[in-house]
């Protein structure tokens, strides 16, 4: 092989290697890369703690938030929604027991579904003692078809003492019962008293 041919082959190989080395690696669309995080992901992010020492725990999550502060706000709202669902479940269970015991139909004018809905709304509005125990966030980039976007995943852990939770429900039912008595609505007053006793006796 002539020297000129050898030189040409070497030049081509060198050019190929340099060309490959200089070609930027483009991440695939949808690839997610963590940029920063407040700490290692806590266990409560994937497993909400069970009730312990009279404390109830509620987790709130917001994914793909454009700003961390907005993510925290939305995560807190999500946690409060979870607390509200707990309130609704407890009240609904107690209401159904009382309604069945007194043989009251759901469409009853004095102590039907409207009474239950009103109690749920009042209980949600009067909850006190909810505290934020912990918060966690991570910032990540995500490769799109035309650009790289940045988002936050944010989570908060709220705590609420079981005694405060029960007290809030009892106060709501007690106030509603007194109002029913003032309005001489004995049927509703009896149902509300039965609900209050049920929640008290089934902590």
Structure description:
It contains 5 helices and 4 strands; from the N terminus they run αββααββαα. It is of the alpha+beta class and 203 residues long. It has one domain: Thiol Ester Dehydrase, Chain A (Roll), CATH 3.10.129. The chain has a 4-stranded antiparallel β-sheet.
User: Quick one: CATH class?
Assistant: Alpha Beta
Percentage of helical residues? 40-55%
- The fraction of residues in strands falls at 15-25%
CATH-derived topology: Thiol Ester Dehydrase, Chain A
Number of strands: 4
- Describe the global form: elongated
Mean pLDDT: 87
What profile does the largest beta sheet have?
4 strands, antiparallel
Query: Into how many domains do the coordinates divide?
Result: 1
- Taking Cα atoms only, what radius of gyration do you get, to the nearest Å? 30 Å
CATH architecture, please? Roll
Distance between the termini: 93 Å
Pattern of helices and strands: HEEHHEEHH
Q: Main sheet: which strands, in order across? A: 1-3-4-2
Structural class: alpha+beta
- Count of helix runs: 5
Q: Unreliable runs, pLDDT <50, ≥5 residues? A: 7-12
Q: Based on the structure, what is the oligomeric state of the protein chains? A: single chain
């Amino acid at each position: 092989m002539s020297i000129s041919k050898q030189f040409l082959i070497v030049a081509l190989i060198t050019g190929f290697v340099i060309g490959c080395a200089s070609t930027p690696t483009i991440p695939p669309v949808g690839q997610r890369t963590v940029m920063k995080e407040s700490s290692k992901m806590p266990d409560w992010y994937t497993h909400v703690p069970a009730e312990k020492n009279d404390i109830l725990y509620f987790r709130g999550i917001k994914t793909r938030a454009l700003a961390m502060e907005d993510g925290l706000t939305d995560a807190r709202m999500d946690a409060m929604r979870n607390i509200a669902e707990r309130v609704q479940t407890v009240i609904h269970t107690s209401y159904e027991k009382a309604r069945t015991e007194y043989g009251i139909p759901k469409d009853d004018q004095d102590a039907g579904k409207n009474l239950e809905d009103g109690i749920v709304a009042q209980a949600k509005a009067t909850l006190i003692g909810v505290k934020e125990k912990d918060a966690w966030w991570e910032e990540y980039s995500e490769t799109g078809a035309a650009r790289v976007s940045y988002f936050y995943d944010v989570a908060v852990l709220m705590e609420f003492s079981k005694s405060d939770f029960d007290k809030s429900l009892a106060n709501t039912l007690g106030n509603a019962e007194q109002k029913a008595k003032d309005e001489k609505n004995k049927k509703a007053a009896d149902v509300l008293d039965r609900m209050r006793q049920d929640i008290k006796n089934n902590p």
